Every structure is written in structure tokens, then in C-alpha cells.
Inverse folding.
């Protein structure tokens, strides 16, 4: 049988084992050498089979550790009250417990004054400068959400509760918010995503951005860049 057909056959066999649960999420796959021996093929054929599985989103390779079955996406559900355009109380409690979900809370990576003319326009700020808070959320295994909160410079002194997160910290500081809008898109991981979220070039990033308001005035522009293989957002209006 030609090598091309053989590596695809091996990928299909392994794929079925993953989809059936025989190979569990997080389980380490045999090495290329072991796969080559098992199926009686050249090591390059086994390598091509692994490439096919990665393309299908079933397997991920961790540098120096090997290849592993990918875990199912971690689903975050955000419920919005259609009348108040705010998180429902149960979801505020859920956001406050993010540390339990992500094992470490919302880690602040950087706080700085940055030039973002487009975002400053959303916030109605002259000069194009915003106060930007960059944070990282992750599971016990790897980072998965890179967030950027852009605020007016006068909020540079906002005290953050890492376990509760930036949005709950805004609430605690007397800035209850409403959603004006939000948008969801997907794009290839850029160099910063690849570094911060431990992603490979070409993998998909789920981007969710939105504008929060307080008393009718823009308060915060939020951009979340998420590993597309681990995170999905559901916004409910019912």
C-alpha cells in the first residue's frame, strides 16, 4: 500500500480510538518510533499520521514531552439579563469563583499606559491613551485566556482582587457596569498569542471583545484572546 494511504489509515485508526474514548483526553500517545513498530511502517509514515491528527484537532504536541489527546473545550457560560444588560447575580458569583475553575485566578501580566486610538475612541478619551491591564487565566496544565482591559487613565489606581478578577474588582470599586456591545471572531494566533498561550503558528484564537458602560458612559473595553481548542463562550439572553 502506498505510504500516503497508509499514514491516513493509521490516523483514522487512532482518531477512532480518541473519539470512542479508548484514548482518554490528556493521555499521552505512543512515540513515533513505537507507532512505526506497531503498524510495521517507516517512522516518517508514523510522523505523517501524527500531523494528520494535529490538523484534525485531536492531538497536541508539547515540546519535549510528546503528543497528547486534546481535552474537550472548557465551556464558559455568560448569562446577560436582556433588561439590565448586566450579568445575572448567579453569574457574578460564578465569575468570582474563577480561581476554582482556572486554578490560580486571574494573573496580572502587565499594567501600563498605552496608545490605542481606536479603543480610546470607544471610550471617548482624547489623546488616544488608555490604561491597559493584561491578565492570564489558565488551567493546571496551561494558559488559555489572555485578556486586555482598557480603561480611562484615571482608573490606573484600581485595586485588583486576583481571585475575583478585573470585572468584579470594578464592581467592588463602585463601578457597576452594563454591556453596550460585544463581538466574537476567530483569527490565527499571532506571535504574542503563541508565546503567552503556548500555541502553534496557524492555530485558531477565539477573540471576544466588548464595551462596558457605567451610568451611560463608556467604562472599559475588554478583549479576550482564547485558545480555540479549550474555550467557548455562550451568551444567553433568555
Amino acid at each position: 500500500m502506498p505510504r500516503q494511504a497508509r499514514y491516513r489509515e493509521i490516523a483514522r485508526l487512532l482518531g477512532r480510538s480518541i473519539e470512542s474514548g479508548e484514548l482518554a483526553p490528556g493521555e499521552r500517545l505512543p512515540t513515533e518510533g513505537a507507532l512505526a513498530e506497531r503498524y510495521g511502517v517507516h517512522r516518517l509514515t508514523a510522523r505523517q499520521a501524527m500531523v494528520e491528527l494535529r490538523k484534525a484537532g485531536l492531538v497536541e504536541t508539547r515540546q519535549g514531552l510528546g503528543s497528547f489527546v486534546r481535552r474537550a473545550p472548557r465551556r464558559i457560560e455568560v448569562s446577560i439579563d436582556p433588561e439590565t444588560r448586566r450579568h445575572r447575580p448567579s453569574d457574578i458569583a460564578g465569575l468570582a469563583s474563577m480561581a476554582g475553575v482556572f486554578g490560580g485566578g486571574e494573573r496580572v501580566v502587565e499594567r501600563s499606559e498605552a496608545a490605542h486610538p481606536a479603543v480610546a475612541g470607544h471610550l471617548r478619551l482624547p489623546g488616544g491613551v488608555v490604561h491597559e491591564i493584561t491578565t492570564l487565566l489558565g488551567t493546571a496544565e496551561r494558559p488559555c485566556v489572555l485578556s486586555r482591559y482598557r480603561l480611562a487613565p484615571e482608573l490606573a489606581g484600581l485595586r485588583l482582587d486576583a481571585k475575583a478578577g478585573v470585572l468584579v474588582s470594578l464592581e467592588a470599586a463602585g463601578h457597576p457596569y452594563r454591556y453596550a456591545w460585544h463581538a466574537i471572531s476567530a483569527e490565527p494566533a499571532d506571535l504574542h498569542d503563541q508565546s503567552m498561550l503556548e500555541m502553534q503558528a496557524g492555530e485558531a484564537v477565539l477573540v471576544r471583545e466588548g464595551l462596558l458602560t457605567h451610568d451611560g458612559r463608556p467604562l472599559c473595553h475588554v478583549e479576550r484572546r482564547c485558545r480555540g481548542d479549550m474555550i467557548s463562550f455562550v451568551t444567553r439572553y433568555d
